């Protein structure tokens, strides 16, 4: 591949003080109902921007040459093995139709869904009809005719949207979430179904009563294996080849955790990069919609479709323009040798590679692979002052009043509507205003220290957990770096500066160019019984105490 000319990454031109001011205003907005105007954050010249269309309009950024990847020979025989970029190449070349691709995924759903339990609702007839219609329409880019799984807290017009909650059991929204509109109308994607999730996006996927539904695609007969949550169903659908890619939301790890657990690449963008309009809320200042995909290129395609300003969500307004994410996720070579698109200092926190566990050894090998790529510099970075205090549970719990406030009318009338997760909602109602304000101040102090102390030494930083960057609204990406001896995926997370999704994608794309972890797929689950019941053991249930401990 020829060298790709690169301009500055998006994070290079962002005014960090302006982002801090915007975070402070967002905290105020959460307290007064979201009517406070948020300061704009401009980006400097030299950043390559994508031509992102308004919601509901064709998105030309999805038709760039780098969005199409010639399929691997071993993937051509089974369309469900194709990445989004590979399927897009075949569809554009007329070698695969959207209808054939949808039918291939529906066939796997028919065979394996009783075991995986990834979907809350499969829209088979609707998907086939949409696929046939796409064959008659002009090609709309890399998502044209691509079957997706949509988390069941995204509004889908006229289609049940339950958030796995008693409160929304009969809810049929009158319109699509903005992100769904961008994917379907703007990109030409096809919704295969709505996926299982933790009740109101709190834990791994269960019924509102706490009965576990979705299993990890890598251990389908053992529901005790953590599949990650709350975007569990989307992760299992993509990992188990029931959908090409899908959407999730993250408030406390709900994209990166299931991605790490199931060998996927999940991207949680900067707060506001994707509109939250039409998504059932959990936290006004910490909810982030984003994609769960099979590799960095697919995550870039998905985020390119989902991102952009939305008049219906003030959090998405006044941001730097969306950069060329698909190009960023395309490996760069010079003289036939792989290099990072931009020279990048990769910060390593204390203790990240310590020990001899399988995870520690995988992390050591991962950093060694990165260090061997031209343009990558591995640097040890210190934890910011009072890190443990500022990222601990006491300050993290200030998210609970934000969760509770939209649902106070339900808490006052019928606690049974919250099922097994009611404890957390009550805890939010009992926290005082003083605690909430102190917590918001602590968040701003943490943000200042992360930007000034941590990112003074690096451009991206390894993460040992998602919560700190969720608190701050900073972007992060989870991706696979190995497997345990028992065959379970090992993942890691990289965090970046505000609006630095393009740099994160560039690093992961380069790593995936020299590794094959992301290409590995789980074996098919055992066949269902003659009665059609799942081959997996049933009956695992989370208690109220477990839910309170696990809730994001």
Automatic annotation (TrEMBL):
Alphabetical list of Pfam families matching this protein: Amidase (PF01425)
SUPFAM superfamilies according to UniProt: Amidase signature (AS) enzymes
Matching InterPro entries: Amidase, Amidase_dom, AS_sf, TAT_signal
Amidase domain span: 101-387
Region Disordered, residue ranges: 245-264
Matching PROSITE patterns: TAT
Example of a GO MF term: catalytic activity
Extent of Low complexity compositional bias: 245-257
Protein name as catalogued: Amidase
Taxonomic lineage of the native organism: Bacteria, Bacillati, Actinomycetota, Actinomycetes, Micromonosporales
